[in-house]
Design a protein that fits this description.
About 25% of the residues lie in helices and about 25% in strands. The protein has about 250 residues and is an alpha+beta fold. The chain has 3 domains: about 50 residues; about 80 residues, wza like domain (wza like fold, 2-Layer Sandwich); about 80 residues, Outer membrane lipoprotein wza fold like (Roll), CATH 3.10.560. Helix 1 packs antiparallel against helix 6. The longest helix is centred in the C-terminal third of the chain and has 20 residues.
């Protein structure tokens, strides 16, 4: 009888210690039963900023004019393979463009900047078509992801899930309910925490990322416990209790 009681007590103790880790929801948008409408995509559009490097290409009926937008060399900070006219946005939000001179594009969306430059070029060129790309658009993903890194993007329409996908997704320790996005915009740093278990996070202005955003995935308490110097002895204690239980069972049989 004493043997059975001792064995059962040890088993219960081991189960209790292993049950200390909190239960977590590892599913993105787990409260989404049906399709969800995102209502504020316009508010999440990327705007051209000071110090952005833009690559501008122009096509028209004049090959000579077109060449003016393909002759300069890529500037420092650009990783683009495009062969367009690359220029850095000045502090006054302007850039110097062939056939136009200084033109303000800072604060505009890419679509609005393309429209404005196209209108200005029509004074000198027939049927111009303008394409703009921000070539130093980058985001950084760190914390509890499999491949933390800084990523230079060809497409400015990137959301938080896509960024996490490029970083190899979260580890099992990543807190999906508390993802931090750090943004530096107009000289001010802002931060927001998003709950990716909740479908409403897709309506956050931080769900779609902007240039130079930093995404930080915080580890949960289980990771902290695992790497804490005060709790590393727990597996040793459990193993010791198991060994004592086996030894006691052998002795009681004699």
């Amino acid at each position: 009888m004493n043997n059975k009681i001792l064995t059962r007590s040890c088993i219960l103790l081991i189960l209790a210690m292993s049950a200390c880790a909190p239960r977590r929801d590892l599913v993105y948008f787990s409260n989404m039963a049906n399709a969800t409408k995102v209502t504020n995509l316009k508010d999440q559009e990327v705007h051209i900023r000071e110090n952005d490097i833009v690559d501008i290409t122009m096509n028209s009926l004049s090959p000579e004019s077109n060449n003016l937008f393909t002759t300069n060399k890529p500037i420092a900070g650009s990783t683009s393979k495009r062969n367009g006219y690359q220029v850095k946005v000045n502090k006054d939000s302007s850039v110097y463009l062939p056939l136009i001179g200084y033109f303000k594009i800072g604060g505009l969306t890419i679509d609005k900047a393309e429209e404005g430059i196209t209108t200005a070029l029509k004074k000198n060129v027939k049927n111009p078509e303008v394409d703009i790309q921000i070539v130093n658009f980058k985001i950084t993903v760190i914390g509890e992801v499999n491949k933390p890194s800084t990523f230079v993007m060809d497409d400015t329409n990137v959301n938080l899930l896509e960024a996490l996908g490029m970083a190899g997704d979260m580890t099992v320790y990543g807190k999906r309910e508390n993802v931090l996005v750090i943004r530096n915009e107009d000289g001010q740093k802002t931060m927001a925490r998003l709950n990716l278990n909740d479908k409403e996070s897709m309506n956050s202005p931080y769900f779609y990322l902007k240039q130079n955003d930093i995404v930080y995935v915080e580890p949960d308490r289980a990771k902290a416990v695992e790497y804490s110097s005060n709790t590393r002895v727990i597996p040793i204690v459990v193993a010791s209790i198991s060994a004592i239980a086996v030894l006691a069972a052998v002795l009681l049989r004699r």
